[in-house]
Amino acid sequence: MPVPSRLFTLYKEIRSDRLLWILLATSAARSLGRGLFLGLTTLYFTRMLGVPIQTVGTVLFVASIAGAASSYLGGHFADRASARLLIGGAFFVQAVGLGGYAFVPDATPRSLIWLTALAALAEGAAWFGGTATQAAVARGFSGAARVRAQALWRTVANAGIAAGSGLAAIPLALDTQLAYRVSLVVAAAAYLVAGVIGLRLPRSADAGIAGDDPEADPAETVRAGTTGTPQPSVSPWRNPRFIVLGLGSAMMVMNFAVTDVAHPQWVSAHTAAPPALVSALLLINTGVVVALQVPSSRLTRDIPSAGRMMLWSGLGFLVAGVLAWAAAKFSVTGAVVCMVLAATVHALGEVVSSSATWALSFGLTPRDRAGAYQGFQSFAVSVGSMAAPLVITNTALRFGLPGWLVLGGVLALGCLTATLATRGARPADEVGGSQSVF
Fold first, then answer.
1. Which spans are transmembrane here (predicted)?
2. Is the domain covering 235-423 a CATH 1.20.1250.20 domain?
3. What is the CA radius of gyration of the chain?
4. Residue 397 main-chain phi, psi, to 5 deg
5. 58, 59, 105, 171: which has the fewest C-beta neighbours closer than 10 Å?
6. Residues contacting residue 67 through CB under 8 Å, at least 6 positions apart
7. How many CB atoms are closer than 10 A to CB 229?
8. What is the spatial distance between Cα 112 and Cα 104, in angstroms, rounded to a whole number?
9. Minimal CA–CA distance to 141: which of 419, 359, 373, 421?
10. Which architecture does CATH list for 17-211?
11. CA distance 257 to 264
């Protein structure tokens, strides 16, 4: 079937599913704003407000702490409140935080306190809403449809971020404070649009709805006891298998920072490749994700297949690290070829590991405690994201080949650890949650 026909068929399929359609619409609006402010924020802080780069790092670190705390908090509320209010409200709060950046006047201590509060508000709302969204996916879809929905969500998000990053070229070219401030307000407006769309989510995504359906299979919502009496699923903190998955995810999620931190710094400081290659590598990553994230979800339709693909991802991360190191040993052409290969192999590992993680996370999540389990998973991921820049700067960027091998080893170990969670596993809705790993 020709590509346009496949796209049209996909569009009709998505449009017929109200929950999926609204989730993707919120993703499109939100990611357009995110792409715009990601391209501007650091330069706005340093060039327009005069904030020292070290202070910017402190502001972002405080914001990441708020994000980690909010990720788990979002899961707590996702099991107790309306998904539409949580997700829509989170987008509105992010709009306030990002729009507030435009009204910070300077780099005085009072302004820096205000800036830190806004950054923490925006980052906290982002993780809170993200957890609530994943809980809605876990409740609103079943089996492989969950992974496919998440893959579509990420594909739309990457396309939106790419478009927003392109729009950021306008204020960057104008390079005036007014252009930056107006662009940040526009980014905030995109989040407001996402919030309005999010308020239209159907009730099927809300906590408790699946259990209220008289025709629903009790195995899909609660764990059946030995007498057949429905019992609530156990907490994720008492589920050894899900804890193992969280540990693996915390290590594995550092692969995203390789694209954002390791590759740009390695190209500029350790290779003969031109600095413009950094933009090309980011485009390669985005292109691979947009093109292959949905198809890769077909490789991880169940828990066993997700475990197998996770191992392949770990191997890919190791190979990509060696290729990046090799780029430092060649002249311009060889360095460019090595980095392009490294970025491509790494992106493939990223795509497959993402699909595998969703399959495991959703597959091991009981529907009646979707918020708690996805909150736990988001918390683990946020901690790994916080640690990633520190790990990267003290491995690959500091020690060359040994450092790249250590970094690749951490990512591969994360994949292997997550794979341990698949040993003898069955979907949580079938067994209720506290499966032993060994």
1. 20-45, 51-73, 85-105, 111-130, 151-172, 178-199, 242-263, 275-294, 306-328, 372-392, 404-421
2. yes
3. 22
4. -75, -10
5. 105
6. 123, 124, 126, 127, 382
7. 10
8. 8
9. 359
10. Up-down Bundle (1.20)
11. 10
Report the first-to-last Cα separation within the chain, whole angstroms: 45
Q: How far apart are CA 263 and CA 399, in angstroms?
A: 15
| Distance (Å) of CA 151 to CA 56, 117, 351, 352 | 32, 32, 9, 10
Distances (CA, A) of 377 to 30, 93, 116, 242: 22, 22, 26, 8
Per-residue pLDDT of 315-324, as tens digits, reads: 999 999 999 9
Contact 254, 411 (CB under 8 A): yes
Grouping H, G, I as helix, E, B as strand and the rest as coil, residue 231 is: strand
pLDDT tier, 231 (very low <50, low <70, confident <90, very high otherwise): low
Q: How far is CA 255 from CA 251, 318, 351, 366, 391, in A?
A: 8, 11, 11, 27, 11
Token pair 């933009």 is at which residue? 279
Is the pLDDT assigned to residue 221 strictly greater than 60?
A: no
Mean pLDDT of the chain: 87
CA 376 to chain centre: 14
Is the pLDDT at 151 greater than 80? The verdict is yes
Greatest CA separation for the chain = 71
Query: In angstroms, rounded to a whole number, what is the distance separating the alpha carbons of residues 9 and 15?
Result: 10
- Amino acid 206: pLDDT: 79
Query: In the beta sheet, which residues pair with residue 438?
Result: none
Tokens of 390: 């520190």
In this prediction, residue 93 has a pLDDT band, given cuts at 50, 70 and 90, of very high
**By three-state DSSP, how is residue 162 classified?**
helix
- What pLDDT is stored for residue 208 in this prediction? 61
Tokens 């969670």 sit on residue? 421
What percentage of residues in the chain have a pLDDT greater than 90? 54
Question: Where in the sequence of the chain do the CATH 1.20.1250.20 domains occur?
Answer: 17-211, 235-423
Q: Where does 190-327 show beta strands of DSSP type E?
A: 223-224, 230-231
- Residue 426, by phi and psi: left (phi above 0), alpha (psi -120 to 50) or beta? beta
Residue 64 tokens, joined: 């990441």
